[in-house]
Design goal:
about 15% strand
């Protein structure tokens, strides 16, 4: 049976994290699973524990708390949540919890916003992507300035825009699993509804996920890549991680089976952990 641990972070520098260690760990790359704006990370860990056990994969769930990482979903935000995740992974590698290989990255809602932007900024640091029901996206084209697109000379940060444009082929050259609940069509308070996003991306999370998938596949083709970017509509699912696991099998997409690619170092630093389940 998988065990769940909590590791305290360093405020504003390294996020705290929930860690799921399967009973029989494989040498497969770990999965980083990123929460949404409601930050119900402990509940997410409970829902993914059985799947971690079934696959033998270690799951890392960073906690981007509201006080220190208010706008974590933008990755290259003022609080630099991207640097926070890089620091957390570096510590977990040093302590032997994960190997040197790039983890797969899965995100739900605001976590999916973070996941696709992080992978885009650091394409060699991430394997497979699973992006579930983000409220809005950064599009792989020049239809707008960052964070809406990668138009140069716009209102977005020049360095970030340049980096995203340069990284685009590497970012798209991977398996990207885009998912959203079929019932996730409400314009709730966490869904950005300004006119620019509505015009570019659509009125709800379903339309926006479909539009981004089409744009990403087109961009991949333009760069000579065979797209590995797929869209899945989960029946009987709204904007709830628990419902998507129960009704849409989301835990299988978040933590898929993977080939074993490396050996893990002996675990150290266990004094930093609190076993909770």
């Amino acid at each position: 049976m998988a065990k769940i641990y909590f590791r305290e972070g360093h405020p504003g520098a390294v996020p705290s994290a929930w860690l799921i260690r399967p009973a029989q760990p494989s040498a497969a790359p770990p999965v980083v699973a990123v929460h949404g704006l409601n930050r119900e990370v402990e509940r997410m860990a409970d829902l993914l524990a059985a799947r971690a056990d079934a696959t033998g994969r270690t799951v890392v769930l960073p906690v981007f708390d509201l006080d220190n990482w208010r706008r974590f979903q933008r990755a290259a935000c003022a609080q630099r949540s991207d640097w926070g995740l890089l620091a957390l992974l570096r510590i977990l590698r040093k302590d032997g919890w994960i190997g040197a290989e790039a983890p797969d990255l899965s995100g739900f809602s605001g976590g999916a916003q973070f996941a696709h932007r992080f992978a885009w900024l650091y394409p060699t640091q991430v394997g497979r992507l699973c992006l579930v029901a983000p409220g809005w996206w950064t599009f792989p084209d020049t239809s707008g300035s960052y964070p809406f697109g990668i138009k140069s000379g716009g209102a977005g940060p020049a360095a970030t825009t340049f980096r995203l444009a340069a990284n685009l082929p590497q970012f798209l050259d991977r398996e990207i699993d885009v998912r959203v609940g079929a019932l996730d069509v409400e314009q709730d308070q966490n869904l950005r509804q300004d006119s620019a996003i509505m015009a570019q991306q659509g009125a709800n999370r379903v339309e926006r996920a479909q539009a981004w998938t089409v744009a990403a596949r087109a961009a991949a083709g333009q760069h000579g890549l065979t797209p590995r970017i797929d869209f899945h509509l989960m029946p009987d699912c709204g904007h709830s991680f628990a419902d998507c696991v129960a009704n849409g099998g989301l835990d299988h997409a978040f933590v898929p089976y993977a080939q074993c690619t490396s050996n893990r170092l002996p675990v150290t630093g266990e004094d930093q952990l609190v076993e909770v389940a």
